Amino acid sequence: MISALFLRLFVFPGVLCTPSQYPLQRVLSKYFDVQAHRGGRGNTVENLIPAFAWALIDGATTLELDNGVTKDGEVIVWHDENIVAEKCQDTGPAFVDDPDFPYVGKYVANLTLAQIQTLDCGSKRQLNFPLQSVYPGTTISTLTELFSFVECADPDYRILWNIESKVNPIETNQTRSPEDFVSKQHEIFVNSPYRHSITYQSFDWRTLVSMKTLDRSIPTSALIDLETSATYDNETSPWLAGQRLDAFEGDLGALVASAAHAIGADILSPADVASLVVDPTLPEYKPFTTRSMVDHAHKLGMLVKPWTVNRLSVAEQLLDWNVDGIITDYPNMMRRLVQQRNRPVAPKYPKKRVLECLKRHLKKATSIVNQ
After folding, report:
1. 174/185 Cα distance (integer angstroms)
2. 3-state class of 62 per DSSP?
3. What's the angle, vertex CA 14, arms to CA 9 and CA 18, rounded to 5?
4. For 356-371, how does the pLDDT look when each residue is reduced to its tens digit (9 = 90+)?
């Protein structure tokens, strides 16, 4: 049995956790958790397999991604509730005289996988990410396809995963239900070679509660920001699975940590900033993740992994506060900072092998779409 003292001193300094809380290989992970947000969208078009390929090459510890569920119940790797024109373009209907065509602008929940996989989502560079590499013609993949690609590039199964359910508890007709997400995602999780490497995260904490009820072995991460933590006309936030922050004691940081702990979350994943001013060197800057939040979460036995941290000045502050991981659009830059701060970083994956797996995957995906 691994002692709690060992875990505190050598694995997660400042965090008291026990082997029962996390799968053994996660407890023994010796690397600081640099998470590639949407595969590292600052570097490569988001949530597509090329992005995850470069995240492996850049030495990310964890691949962070989003899931949607299609009309026919397929779990896809995609962030938005709908197909946005800024990211994707139509190439043609899935079948002749399809009444749903064009698909751009439609909700994922109202489209089939066959319809979605006609879309070119690799050609458009996002204006906010001018260094983003594009991969014209690349289509949205299923979660199973992504696992298959990474298995080729990661035959030793070293990579970790942080997988989000994109459920909308306010506009309930825009996504599939929490029950659909949890059941369909869980089925894929437990039948994948990465079963014990997956963290399940969501802003809609109902899905976290449901996943814990279904399978306590899967760590859950409670996403939260100013919007989802706020009360609505003095009503409980629909995002927090019935929790009210004002039911707890302390400052905002302590309230957020206590609410996440109350639903059994293993990890607290708060937004990094709570102001329009985003740099700590400016007087108007206001963080959402605070030292008191980190300290209180640690006292409750949770890890803290803020998002989406793209400024090194913010990251330096968070590292000073002893966060356990950082979710970033630039995993290569964050890894370098973490290394400079004498924190252990995950090894990079062999570029030649990863790109060969990517080449084979893209060739296979193209042939399937053209059938």
Report:
1. 18
2. strand
3. 70
4. 999 999 988 776 556 5
Distance CA 249, CA 144 (A): 43
Rounded average pLDDT over 142-162: 96
Q: What secondary structure does DSSP assign to 257-275, as a single string?
A: HHHHHHTT-SEEEEBSBSS
Count of beta carbons in the 10 Å neighbourhood of residue 258: 18
Q: Whole-angstrom Cα distance, residue 323 to residue 174?
A: 34
CA 64/CA 163 separation, integer angstroms: 6
Three-state DSSP state, 24: helix
Distance CA 254, CA 1 (A): 31
Give Cα 285 distance to the centre of its chain. 25
pTM: 0.92
Q: Please give the structure tokens belonging to residue 277.
A: 């001013």
259-272 pLDDT tens trace: 999 999 999 999 99
Taking Cα atoms as reference points, which of 169, 174, 178 lies closest to residue 82? Answer: 174
Q: Does position 281 have pLDDT exceeding 80, yes or no?
A: yes
Are 149 and 353 in contact, with CB atoms under 8 Å apart?
Answer: no
State which amino acid sits at residue 263.
I
Yes or no: say if 27 and 320 are a contact pair by the CB < 8 Å rule.
no
Q: How far apart are CA 62 and CA 217, in angstroms?
A: 18
Q: Which residue has the tokens 């060739």?
A: 363
Provide the CA 145 distance to its chain's centre, in angstroms.
17
SS3 250: coil
Q: Helix, strand or coil for residue 156? A: coil
Q: How far is CA 260 from CA 146, 154, 215, in A?
A: 29, 32, 18
Would you give the distance in Å from CA 322 to the centre of its chain?
A: 20
For residue 295, pLDDT over 50 is answered with yes
